[in-house]
Amino acid sequence: MDHSYRITRRAFAAGAMTFGIFGASAARAQFGLGDLLDDGLGLVGDLGVGKWLEGEAPVTTALSDAEWANPALDNVDPPFTAQPLASLERTDDGGFILQPGWWQITAQSYCLHAGTHGPGGGDGYLYAPLKGSADEYVRDILRNSVSRPDIEQRQIQLLIWAILARAKFEDLRRELQVVASQLLSRRQLARLNRSAMDLVPNGMMGEVLGEVPGPLRTAFEAEAALRRGLTVGGASYDELEAIAVLGGDVPLGAGSREIPSGRWSDHPDGYRIRYFPSGYSETRTDIWVAEDSDAVGEEYDPSIQVAVPGNTSRQRLAQSGRER
């Protein structure tokens, strides 16, 4: 692997959290980057720094989108015997047709926020909708993976990291390109390539980012490391995971809320939902459908649901209909 862009987990976290707090356009204003980007650094524009600073992130779902928490039901279980969600009728998109009851599934879940800590420490998760410039691609990868049990979970996670890092899919290692072609359409792959960012050549990172303030510089370098590892760098899954999923002490992130484990969300579609992650790659989901709920007979589609942590230093988690 090319080690010129290897960074520490701590450095990645600092940059990623700063970028998450300020947002791209806000960061530009906060740090006075307008003149820097507009007054002649053509190299910066060519390599995509301006797009990185100004564009909408691939996934933007945040704690502020989790509007349906119901603390009055903390420590309350549904008045039913828990049944496997997989026993319900499935849809073509890998969803489930809901019926009255208490439904449970332990399914594959995915890291949606590279550079943050995994679940743990009793921190709870809430429902929020999948949002962002790449929500369509993440959704379709998750939906289409249900009918492709032959594709390993790690391969799916690598594709999601490639989207988060804005990597060029045509530059991914061959086996990942094959998996991408099985889960996304040619049109989608072409659009992902057009919205991707270039690799920063060896020795040019300092020139490209010479006057960009430290926190944003760290975030850009971290994304570049992930992008390089997924394409020409030949990084192993464990190496990429070490960049994306942090270890060590977990600080309380900016804008965090105290959410206990197992708090219900009153889903806008008429049912209640709660999450119990075990690491980032596995989540038990409970769904409570009342007898008179409007959700009876409607679809629960995991691919458009995100489990969002109360502590913003932790991973937000994409959900899937693939059982563990």
Describe the structure.
This protein has helices at about 10-20, 25-30, 35-40, 40-45, 50-55, 135-145, 155-165, 175-185, 185-195, 205-210, 215-230, 235-245; strands spanning about 80-85, 95, 100-110, 115, 125-130, 245, 265, 270-275, 280-290, 300, 305-310, 315-324. The protein is globular, with a radius of gyration of 20 Å. α11 (about 215-230) packs antiparallel against α12. The chain is an alpha+beta fold and about 325 residues long. A hairpin with a 4-residue loop joins β8 and β9. Strands 1, 3, 5, 7, 8, 9, 11 and 12 form an eight-stranded mixed sheet that branches.
Topology at a glance:
Elements: H1 9-22, H2 24-30, H3 34-38, H4 42-46, H5 49-54, E1 82-84, E2 96-97, E3 101-111, E4 116-117, E5 125-129, H6 135-145, H7 153-164, H8 174-183, H9 186-195, H10 205-208, H11 214-230, H12 237-244, E6 245-246, E7 265-266, E8 272-277, E9 282-289, E10 299-300, E11 305-309, E12 317-323
Parallel strand pairs: 1-3, 4-6
Antiparallel strand pairs: 2-10, 3-9, 3-12, 5-11, 7-8, 8-9, 11-12
Helix pairs in contact: 1-11, 6-7, 7-11, 11-12
**What percentage of amino acids are in beta strands?**
15-25%
- The helix-and-strand class reads alpha+beta
Q: What is the number of helices? A: 12
DSSP, total strands: 12
Low-confidence stretches: 1-47
